[in-house]
Design brief:
Structural class: alpha+beta
Radius of gyration: 14 Å
Number of domains: 1
Number of strands: 5
CATH class: Alpha Beta
Order of helices and strands: HEEHHHEEE
Strand content: 25-35%
Shape: globular
Strand order of the largest sheet: 2-1-5-4-3
Distance between the termini: 14 Å
CATH topology: Beta-Lactamase
CATH superfamily: PAS domain
């Protein structure tokens, strides 16, 4: 998650938030499958991109779907559930912990949400990354 934070900082103009269009998946190819982006331009956050690792873990691609459809027993849900804090504080926030997976077993995870802005100030998107200790995430 620290490398994703460093990448985000490299994209940010001095004193401003970076724009979503500046993200180049090829620049973070090794991390991109564990990433996702949220579009905050409508009434609900929508997944604009969901990485292959999250698609495999979730069992379906939620790209274009509301974030609330992630399901509370998934890594993707736990990675996005604190996006309101990012909106209110306007800074990157990272969390980690455990949650009960679909089989009831605890899943250890870590995640980061990074605010994005087309005008450098108002947040209209989020770049996120999350991984856990499941076999498909190793």
């Amino acid at each position: 998650m620290l490398r994703l934070l460093a990448y985000w900082r490299d994209l940010a103009p001095e004193g401003q938030l970076p724009a979503a269009h500046r993200i180049q998946p090829a620049d973070i190819a090794d991390m991109w499958p564990a990433c996702f982006t949220l579009d905050l331009g409508g009434p609900k956050p929508i997944f604009a991109y969901v990485g292959d690792l999250h698609v495999a873990h979730h069992g379906r691609d939620l790209t274009g779907r509301p974030a609330e459809e992630a399901g509370t027993d998934t890594l993707l849900w736990h990675a996005v559930e604190y996006f309101d804090e990012v909106l209110s504080r306007k800074i990157p926030i990272t969390y980690g912990g455990t949650f009960p997976g679909g089989d009831g077993e605890p899943v250890a995870y870590r995640s980061i949400l990074l605010p994005l802005s087309d005008d450098g100030d108002e947040i209209n998107g989020i770049l996120g990354g999350a991984n856990c200790l499941l076999e498909e995430f190793k």
